Amino acid sequence: MARQLRFTGTDSKVDGCPALHTDVGTGEIVVQGTPVTDPADLAQLQHFGPDEAAVVVPRELIVNWGPKEMERVPELVDRDTFRRLFETFEHTAWRLETRRGYASDRQDPDYQAFLATGSSPCDPDEPWFINIRRQTDAGKQVGRVRIADSPPTTEQLFLLDYARHNAAVGEDIRYLWREDAATLPAEDFWLFDSRLVALLHFDNADNLLNIELITEPAEVVRYSIVRDAAMHHAVPYDQFAEQVAQTD
User: The whole model's pTM is what?
Assistant: First the structure.
């Protein structure tokens, strides 16, 4: 079915190119301009797919005629798409964990072993560990800051014990007491390459409901600021474990 396009505007005084159009049905912006065809130019474009086209337009066109306000429609992705982000990120993958527990952890046999013995086992050949080792060996950075209650919940104690397995494959695991994290949002998210956020939505029983991708620059900057603040105040997991032991 053909798109229903509405002319948005142009800065051209002669032939109407370059210009912007809006897809009435989806809200997508169609950019009309001079195509980029030089292979040397195309080779410099990042995230450029084989079926995509690039065009050149004056900056003023976007400033003058681009949308100034928008009602953001959440972009939800499936679990497979989410998992691929951990294989395709280029520099950094970082997570903030804020919940008192996760249903997925309570369903993990390693959690049951922790309840029985006080120590969590680990299979180093799990796909997660194999991939994270591959990424960190390639020089990429993977890290988390976890918010813990005082005293920590059983689930938080499990993750604190399990952190040594994450660290063994190169993850930087850090902790903050909840009382020291009052300025941080109560949101769980992954931040990839400081350009893409995967916001994790949970229900009241700690089940992951859906995963929302956010690429809007101002929102990504906001989450990057959260990361910087959390990393500034958090301490490595082994130091935090010593603090927990001292409070027992």
Answer: 0.80
Q: Are 18 and 33 in contact (CB under 8 A)?
A: yes
Cβ atoms of 63 and 8 closer than 8 Å? no
Structural tokens at position 74: 């959440």
Which pair of structure tokens corresponds to residue 160? 């604190």
Taking Cα atoms as reference points, which of 240, 226, 119, 242 lies closest to residue 175?
A: 240
Contact 48, 36 (CB under 8 A): no
Q: In what order do the strands lie in the sheet with 92-97?
A: 75-77, 208-214, 196-202, 188-192, 92-97, 141-148, 172-177, 235-236
pLDDT in tens, 165-192: 999 999 999 999 999 999 999 999 999 9
Structure tokens at 22: 């809006």
Contact 211, 201 (CB under 8 A): yes
Residue 46's CB: how many other CB atoms inside 10 A? Answer: 5
**What DSSP assignment string belongs to the chain?**
----EEEEEE--SSS--SEEEEETTT-PEEEE-EEP--HHHHTT-TT--TT---EE--HHHHHHHS-S---PPPEEE-HHHHHHHHHH-SSEEEEEE--S--HHHHTSHHHHHHHHHSS----TTSHHHHHHHHHHHTT-EEEEEEEE-SSPPHHHHHHHHHHHHHHHTT-EEEEEEGGG-TTS-S-EEEEETTTEEEEEEE-TTS-EEEEEEE--HHHHHHHHHHHHHHHHH-EEHHHHHHHHHHH-
Q: How confident is the model at residue 69 (pLDDT cuts 50, 70, 90)?
A: low
